[in-house]
Protein 1
Amino acid sequence: MSQLIQGTQALTVPLTVPLPLTHPIYHILLVLAMGERHGYGLRRAIVASTEGRMRVGNGSLYRSLDVLLTAGLIGETRGVIDDALAPRRLFRLTDLGERIARAETERLVQLIAVAQRTPRLRSDGPEGARGGESAGRVLLSIDAKGIP
């Protein structure tokens, strides 16, 4: 079992969930927090929510979905959506998945706070100014092999 601390409350999570969460898993949870989606809808929503900076390939997406299903962070149903002829696998966030997403978000907020207090990493400091506008815009492309 792994533990993720959220404030004063520790969450015990099955080892099948890598902590801290990987980028694809975290983004899947974020998208599902907005509502139920099918696989292709998840991919499109991740690209849209990251303004094209992150793309998840089919292999990474479905491997991540299997991990999340096994851990009980998401659930699956079958249903017709968007006038599709055949039923699709629809994924939804579970209560546990929501708790893990909230805890991971808090962990990232704390990590960003540390980075913002670090002069070389601040965008308004002398070091950050040298990075230019492109320093903050990075395209993440995740394929079946993981992060390049």
Protein 2
Amino acid sequence: MVSRTLFPLALSLVFASSGLLGCEQKVPEPTPEPRPAVKTEPEKPEPPDLIKEDTQVGTGAECKDGDKVKVHYTGRLLKTNFMFDSSVGKTPFEFTLGKQEVIKGWDQGVVGMKVGGKRKLTIPSKLGYGDNGSPPKIPGKATLVFDVELLEIVAPPTETKDGDKKANEKDKAKGGTDKPKTGGDKPPVKADQADR
């Protein structure tokens, strides 16, 4: 009877030992496929100064410092192409050139456009929002790209007795200000937000 109980035990030891012998040989692990190298686009360097590119030259009057102008614009970050603001499809934006109502890049970049014209402005941070940016949409030291369309010269400058230029005498007589009238939508190009 002992042999009947020992036989299954001996048989299981034989199978167990043969299983251990089989484990001595290592099964090769699959080699992972090499991942393709991620091609990163080289970072676009900030331009040293304002870049003005006329994409469509207008046929109307040419604007100059002191003119109150009406424009449509779309603003993007150069680095990511993120569109942070646009007046297209909304009320056009009005401001007076050279009165620091907008960032320096706009005061310098819109001058010389003709009504009906379109211009691409690439604005380095020193002429935009500087080291601080305009959170949350515009980070510090951001180069900005604006597509600007000059719709109208609302009011040319007028000479006063003392030779100073005034933007729009009629607006001032009605109690208006030099600040653009844009309803509730104020674009992120206000000069009071920019580093100077």
Protein 3
Amino acid sequence: MWFKAEIMNPDPLKDASHSSIDGAQNSNGGGVFIAIGAIVGAIGGGLMGQPSAGLLAGLALGALVALLIWWQSR
């Protein structure tokens, strides 16, 4: 064939992200607290007749926890 072997079989390390090779520090995921806070807040607020207020309170609390986790890992 007239194709170069490089095109058919690229170097796997050439296109890789090298994140594990560089020794990059893993960060903790705080986004789950935002999602859980929104869900629990909406349900709790719905039980009290104020689902929107509960959603906003849950989002605020989840964002606060996520920020604390981010701040701790800095």
